[in-house]
Target: Glutathione S-transferase
Amino acid sequence: MAQDRIVLHYLKDSRASRIVFLFEELGLEYEIKAYEWTPELVAPPELKLVWPLGLSPAVQIFKADDPEPIVLAESGQIVQFILNNYDSEGKFKPESMRDQVLVDYYLHFAEGTLEPHIVSLLVGYVASQRAPFGFGWLVKLVLSQINSQFYLRKLKTALAFLNSQLEAKDGGYFVGNKLSGADFILDFPINENLFLNPYKVKRLGIDIDPSKDYPRLVEWNKLITERPLHVKALEKKASVMKNKRGLLG
Model:
């Protein structure tokens, strides 16, 4: 039986990157439609043709017996649906109900607890760069106080929690002894937002030393990013954005 046609709408430097990793690990056939951010740092209006909010990632699934595609438009929803419906061999299926509950927790934790603090720091940085002439120093001063007392403190608490979870199980993957939805969903905020780009971290005012502060997270990040299909996913994303055209997976 032919596989459903799957299209990933991929906005450059967005959370869609981890979905490429997921698809590669599952060995799915898929297409990528690439988009660039507008000069105003918002997603292009074409994405609203896929889903009204016009955000990425968004995945369309075309089934032979249905004229309308299924649309998935949240990272956690995408990871959960794809694993539930396309992991036919149970490669990433949790070993127990307790493990499944933990995977589901991380799917919500990544987007509901971890990412908002990173996004808030990013928004603050953009605001400081776009402040009216002569007021940049004041905006930076106010934001630094807000960040240190709330967003940065909350982010460090979340990272310490993740590090302690890995420490409690002596490292490895987040749930059980194999890759799961938890690792897919945490790949973007940990790897691409924090560990992959030290300059970005410094620019956002995130004063952390990963190797010293979160050694288990560093080990986990290395475990994930050295997987051959993670490397392949990075290469595919780079190729898509370089050529600015769709790519078959």
